[in-house]
Amino acid sequence: MMKKYFILILVVLSAGFVTSCNDKLELEYDGRSSLDELFKTKNGVRGYLNACYGYRIMPVIERSALTDEAHSSERVYQGTLPSLWYVDAYSAANYSNVDGQPWTGIYQSIRKCNVFLKRMEGISGNDLASLEDEVTSWKAQAHTLRALYYLQLVKRYGSVPLITEPYEIAHDFSQDVRVSVSAVVNQILADCDSAMAAPELPLGFSWTIRTGENYIMNRAVVQAIRSQAILYAVSPLYSSDSYSWQDAAAITGNALSSLLANGYELWTETPGAGVAQNAYALYFITPHDEQRARDKETIYGGGRVNIWGGNGMPSTPGQSSAGACPTQELVDSYEMQATGLLPVTGYSDPQHLQPIINAASGYDPQNPYAGRDPRFYATIYFNGAPRNLESPAANLCESYVGGKDGISTTDRRNTHTGYYLRKYNNWKSGRDNNADGELRTFRLAECYLNFAEAAYQATGNPDQAMNIGNGMSLSARDAVNTIRRRAGMPDLPAGLSKGDFEIRYRNERRVELAYEGHRYFDVRRWKIMGESEHYVTGMKITESGSDYTYERISFERESHKEKLYLYPIPQAEINKMQSHTGTNWQNPGWN
Fold first, then answer.
1. What number of other Cβ atoms are within 10 A of residue 28's Cβ?
2. Which residue has the higher pLDDT, 169 or 67?
3. In sequence order, what are the residues at sequence separation of 6 or more whose Cβ sits closer than 8 angstroms to the Cβ of residue 571?
């Protein structure tokens, strides 16, 4: 006998999720008849659309501590996510990540999108006493949200059930299957196409949004979703025969050129004296403005952060945790500005205690923080880094042993790696004034990098220009160099082989997108987690008179295992679907 289930609809709110700025319409309904009434009014439709926004997963700082970007001081407390993650203490039954276990919440939001789109079939502006442009915009928003939710799913779970119609009470669950990632990406791209078919008008589905409608879906978000979805589809972890790198280059290129043709550009504003170190630093302490009057790089914002308190230095009054402390591996990835070369090209031991120094780079191991990529100074507090930019010599970071911000391996308030996070931190922030910045969900720099990756893979030649649409032509090297020029770094040289360019590209992506939530997924989709996650290191600095000695220290983790490429599907869901379908849906390694 076929079992029947009711699906409970929830709107889940937590630190990792951002809701629409529009007030939610509080509605009670008890079945189809109430929904019928709901979709007869403008306010009812808008209220239900608002509910569709309930599970957008935004990037959070804490995800960096689950990668080789950071090692968390929170590991000293039993039961915290890092303490369990680093020893591989999770099973499918008790799994958690920085976004919890989002399978159910995402599918609940997909169901709402499905209901909305089905109910809106054939409904016109006249039916709702509304403008036709508004109605088509609402449908486009729902298509965009569904595309975003499926992107969130495949990044975490790989192949998943593809559901585009509302489940009826009599739904036959025995017919449900997990489909390939490429099939899900087909749907993502189809939803993006449906959204872009809406009129490009101020009250329709525009490239920007009206004042007071922050975090509403728009045409630019569609392009960012397209760019990321196709790149993931062809990456080694997810790849299949359905899409090629040529497909990815065409789609990421078109997404990039569409954004550029509609006023998106990299942030290049020079900060005033004492405000921030450079344009890159200023960007990340400046909240985005939905009208893009100042910030033309952000495609979709994220949550404001509290670096000074939750990921800060113990010398700051009110600080509670050092949090996600940058690793030595991340520090090593910042090139020398004068030469544009990496100071460390690898390690001669598994524990990363023996760096391979690149003598041609100009790096001095006894003065390791001098002359680096300007993004280094905007991202990391190191020993001797100025904190007060108005009086740089007045308040320096002291992360050496015994310093006011000294290294520890037992105290959550002190760095465990010798470094603290600076990105997003406004140096004026403190207990009485949190002026820290904002994470971005999507920004233009990522789209440049997505295209660069697809283009060099497609052509085999990073110097080969491609037509990306809208009258623009660009090579993979051009795209990367655009990012580097904004940062004040020299161009990558012409003539790099595909393999050499890949090394430089992956490092560039790591540096540019540090602490933005990308590294976690990048090492997985590239299938390099085993080499990147087993050991991470820090720098123990000892003061000796006016000099310092530098000693690398290593931390071993068990969180490099192949099963961690994907989240496990919740065990309760696995048990339920196995009883319906006779198939074990669980991801590899989680049985």
1. 5
2. 67
3. 91, 92, 93, 586
Q: At 39, which amino acid appears?
A: F
Q: Look at phi and psi of residue 263 and say left if phi exceeds 0, alpha if psi is from -120 to 50, else beta.
A: left
383 in Cβ contact with 398 (< 8 Å): yes
- The DSSP output letter for 160 is B
- The number of angstroms, rounded, from the C-alpha of 257 to the middle of its chain's C-alpha atoms is 21
Question: Pairing mode, if any, of strands 466-469 and 438-443?
Answer: unpaired
Q: In whole angstroms, what is the distance from residue 177 CA to residue 39 CA?
A: 31
Helices marked H in 292-443 — which ranges?
Answer: 307-310, 328-332, 374-379
Q: Which of 214-218, 392-396, 428-432, 534-538 has the highest mean pLDDT?
A: 534-538
Half-sphere exposure (CA, 13 Å, Cβ side) for 446?
24
Which pair of tokens denotes residue 400? 């050496």
Neighbours of 262 (CB within 10 A): 15
Same domain, 154 and 254: no
Instruction: Report percent pLDDT > 70 for the chain.
Output: 94
What is the distance between the alpha carbons of residues 169 and 349, in angstroms, rounded to a whole number?
58
Residue 33 has pLDDT above 70, yes or no: no
Which helix (DSSP H) or strand (DSSP E) does residue 443 occupy? Answer: strand 438-443
* Domain's final residue, options 488, 503, 521: 521
Q: Nearest 5 degrees, angle CA 118-CA 123-CA 126?
A: 160
Range of the domain at 455: 244-300+437-521
Q: What is the CATH number for 152?
A: 1.25.40.890
Q: How far, in Å, CA of 230 to CA of 69, rounded?
A: 25
Which residues, including other chains, have CB under 8 Å from residue 546's CB and lie 6 or more apart? none
Separation of alpha carbons 405 and 413, rounded Å: 9
Number of domains within the chain: 2
43 inside domain: yes
Q: What sign has the CA pseudo-torsion 235, 329, 153, 137?
A: negative
Inter-residue contact 138 to 46 (CB < 8 Å): yes
pLDDT tens digits, one per residue of 108-134: 999 999 999 999 998 998 989 888 999
What is the distance of C-alpha 546 from the center of its chain? 41
CA atoms of 436 and 425, how far apart (whole Å): 5
Q: How far is CA 485 from CA 100, 121, 283, 285, 460, in A?
A: 38, 48, 15, 20, 24
Contact call for residues 215 and 300 (beta carbons, < 8 A): yes
Q: Please give the model's pTM, rounded to 2 decimal places.
A: 0.93
Q: How is residue 420 written in tokens?
A: 């603290």
Q: How many Å apart are CA 564 and CA 91, to the nearest integer?
A: 11
